[in-house]
Each structure stands twice: as C-alpha cells, then as structure tokens.
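So, can you check these tokens?
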Amino acid sequence: MTVTAYRTPLSDLESPATTRLLSERTLSSSAAVTLDGQVRQIPGLELFRRSSSLVANPSSQGVSLRGLGSTSASRTLVTEDDVPLANPVGGWIQWEEQPELSIGSIELVRGGASDLYGSSAIGGVINVIPMRPTQDQVEVLSSYGGEGTYDSSLMAEAKRGPWGVLMAGGLLGTDGFIQEAPSQRGPVDVASNVHAQNALLLAEHERGGLRLFMRASGFNEERHNGTPYQWNATRDVRYATGADWRAGSGGLVGARIYGSSERYRQTFSSIVNTPNAATPGCAFRCGETPTKFSYDPDNELGGAVHLNQPVGAGLVLVGGAEAHDVRFWDREQSYGAKAALTNLRDHQRDSAAYVEAMWVRGGWTVAASGRMDWFQNYDGFQWAWNGTAYVASATQPSQRDERIFDPRLGISRKIAAHWSLNASGFRAFRAPTPSELYRSTQVGNKLTNPNGNLLSERATGWETGVATEWTWGSVRTSYFLTEVNRPIVAVTVNPTSSPILLVRENLGQIESKGLAVDFELKPLSWANVDGGYQYAHATVSRGSQDLNNWIPEVARNMATLNLRAYKAAIGTLSLQSRLSGRQYDDDANAFLLHGYFKLDAFASHQLGKRVELFAAGENLLDRQIEVSKTPTTTLATPRTARVGFTVRIGGGK
C-alpha cells in the first residue's frame, strides 16, 4: 500500500498513479553509501548530473523524473513526513542531511502532483518515511573503504508506554578523487570531497488514536569542489512538531509546524585553460583566480493541516491547507576588475488550499483533486557598497504575485483479480527559487547569471498504462507526456567567452514523452528481482532558441536491474545495475556525454543475532562515466569498495 500518491492508502492495482516503494531492507542492501545513490535504483530517476553527492557541488543535486531534467533546482519534490527537504535558497537536495539509520522507507510517485503538494512536484514526489520508536534498542553501523570513504551512524530508541524517543546521528564523508579526466588535468586540480555530520532527536506520545511529536535535526558539511579555492559549507538546523489523530470513523487529521535556519557559504573562481607563464611547462588548467565569495543565510517557516475522511461506502474526501515562508539574504564579494560588495534580501511565501474526492467501487477508482496556490515574491531590496557605505542598488528585486490552480483527475479500472487499466491527467507548477532569481553560479568554466524577472513554470501532462499483480510479483507499464510551459532553463548566450556565459530564462516550452516499465518479481522464495526501463523523448518543443534540442542532462534510454538473494545460513547478496544512454550537458547540445553501464554489489553475513558484517563495491567494472563537460570532462566515482559492520543491542532481534 502506498500513501503518497493520493494521501490515502491504495494498492498498486487501485492507484491511477505510478508508484514505487523502497523498503528498509532494499535501502540497507544497496552498495551506495548515500541516499541519492540508493534511490537511483529506480529507473528514470537521475540527479541534474551523474555524479554522486559525495563529490558533487550542491548546485547539481536537483532531481529529474519523467525525463524533465532539472537545474540546481529540482523538478521533483522531496519530503519527509509532509515536511519539504529542498534547500530553500537553491532548491537542491542535501542527501547527507538525514541520519542513515533514521530512514525507514521511501515512497515515490511519478508524474505531476502539485494538486496535493504544490510547487516543484512536476516530475513527481519522493517521500522519505522516517523510523519511529517501537522498542528499546541501540544500533551502530560503521564502514570504511576506497577514496577514504567513511560512514558511521548510531541510532538509539526507547519505548515506555505511550512515550517514545529516538536519537540518531552520523558521520559521512570521503577524501574524494580528482574529477577531471586524466588527459585534461593540470596543476590546479585537486580532489573533490565532502565531510558531513548529522543528528536527529524525535520524541512522541501516542495514546488511542492521537499521536503528538516533536523533531529536531542538525546538519553540517564542508566540501572541496575540485580546485584549491572552490569550496562550500552548509550548516542547517530543522525543527518540526505536529499531531496525527485517527477518529473512530476512520478519518484522519494531521497538523504540522516546521522550520529551518541555514547558513550557506560558497566560493567561485575562474580557471586558466591556456599556457601560463607563471607555471613553466604547463599547457592546461595552469592557474586559478578567485572571482567571488557568497554568504547566504535563510530562515524557513511552514505549516500544514490535512484531513482525510471516509464518507459512506467507497467515498473518501481529502482536504488541507498549507503555508510556506522563506526569508533569504545574499551577501557577495566579487573580485577582479569588477570588484564589488553587494547585499540583497528577499521574501517568498506560498499559501495554498486543496481538496480531493476519491471514489472506490466495483473495481473502479476515480480521484479528482485541485489546489490553489498563492505565490508571492516581495519585500526584496539590494544594496551596493560605494567605498564608504551601503547605498541602494540601481536595480532592485522584482515583486510578483501569482495565483495558480492545479487540478488532477485519475481513473483506474481493476479487471478480474490481477489486472488494471489506469489513466490520469494533471497540471503542476514550480516557482523560481531565490538562487535562480538573484545568484550567479559557476561550474567549471560555465558561468550562469540569474534573472530577477523569472515566472513560475507551468506543466500539463497525462499518462495511461496497464498494471498486473500476481503472487510472483507485479509489472506496470505507462505511456506519459508532459509539457512544461515557460520552463526555467540556463540558456547559452556566449559560447566562446571565458567563462562560457549562460543566463536563466523562461524558455518557450519543453516536452517529455515516452514509455516506462516497472517490475518487482519474486521468482524464488529466497530471491527478488526488480527494475525497469524508461524511454523519454525530451526536447525543446517551442521557443526562439534551442528548438528541437534535447533537454540537458536527460538520456533517452535508462534502465535498472537489481537482484537480491537471502538465505539465513549464508546471508544477503545484492547486485544493482544501471544503464543510461547518451545525453547532452548543455542547452545548445554542443557537449555530448556518452552512455554508461554501472554495476554495484553488496554482501552481508550475520554473526549470531546481534552482529552483521558486510562488504560493498561500486562501479565494479571501473567504467569511466562522464559527468559533465564544462568544457573539460569530469568523471564519476571510479571503482571503490568498503567493508563494515552493524551491531544491534536490545530489541527483539
């Protein structure tokens, strides 16, 4: 049963939407050390770029589903217990933020879901379902491996009557590697890496049908992004409190209040790609010049109320209201011939209400829903330093007020006991982030300037498919089409400059259409096989520039195949494979990234009831996977291996 798609439990054959569930066992038996690597087991899911979050700049960690691509901002919404996890400034996901042992499972919904979830849910929703305290137990996990990669996590939980407490924390990082292709490296290139720490505290009280909870978490990381000067650091504190009440009639009421306070710092530089007299004998990437330092604090506050009420036989009504408020500051010091000191503030707010009616009867499931969002960008102001004092800048942040309605209609028809037909249509949107509006970013030798006049993206889409479910497993196929009007993209304006100059624009329209197949099979009592395939014809379908070009960072063909086998006397063996076709790294389709095949493996063995030993290997065939061309080529993680152990004390295990 999945809940995320329609905020009420539905089986695969009843749901008009395409859903996937990654269980705790599936996540823990993955070779990947980070959450983004684990969710890539799902076909068609990719980050903005192919690299692991262990070595990727945060601005390349947006999520792409249904072939829609992303920029630094994600076109897929990521939540935890109804609380959004995207960075409030840039829209990217901080994949090391959640303590590893605190994650229970993950639900994924493909296709537009702004009717219930609002901004960013154009490609779908990824919902992280956290662990809850159920017993007295302590669990410790630790591993170490290639590239100096380490992962240590601790979780302690206690249950006393209606009271429960869960504490978790971890250390995660790597010494990393040089991402530049060997033939293009120079003296300026150093290892990209990350060192992160996270912690979480959850307290809850549950009696009868009422659950009250409070949760607080902290996250800190520091990254080096491939040169001596390029680095960034994040410090983030989140909090949430709320209640869930299940009435005797089957109704459910949920309320959430949440917030965060983040401090983000980043440096930028330009790289000398020509011979440099200061470095005799150097022919490539000979030097580095600092260009900018930015400091971006922000405060986030939000609240939500959700109601789910059965009415008679087979009818469920769902409704809710949300408000999300972000206050953002950008303080930048630029260097060089155009040295400047600027200070900017901005305020964004999204208020919304939604309703849904779901009718289930005689093999039919019909769900109709709609949501009204009121998005505001206001109270912006920019100062510039004139040498003695801050003065009002000649250009000021634009003010905007958008009212957006997003409906969705889904129909599923169950045929006999094992088959169903389904179809759905939707509208969805994504509001521009403060980073897209006001911050310039640079990756390699590509400089992307902001655009303070950006409007929200608007998407219209539909899909239809067939699903079947048997004792040996399930298969689901879907044909999908999504059109995004005025998409926010990075358009190349000067391909010959150094750095290459891009600017964010509302392009005319992008379109992604194709076929998706998902399967989860159990051919033997001790073996599971899952995976799928996605074909996405994703192009610029309307606009004055890049017409008919491929959407950047989207491969037309993607497939995954995962095998998991378990026998008590031997242990667990898991193989994960991923195939991706070629794609382009830029809107002009000038920089081709070749396709790749990646094979990972995980094996574990239980020693008694409390101790488990494991080993994992990634990219076992040591393929050179191209990540980006900026314009020099960077590569993904080479073959690595790690070993570790898990110890559980107390509990029922």
The CA atoms of residues 34 and 522 lie 26 Å apart. The radius of gyration is 24 Å. DSSP finds four helices and 38 strands in the chain. Residues 24-28 form the longest helix (5 residues).
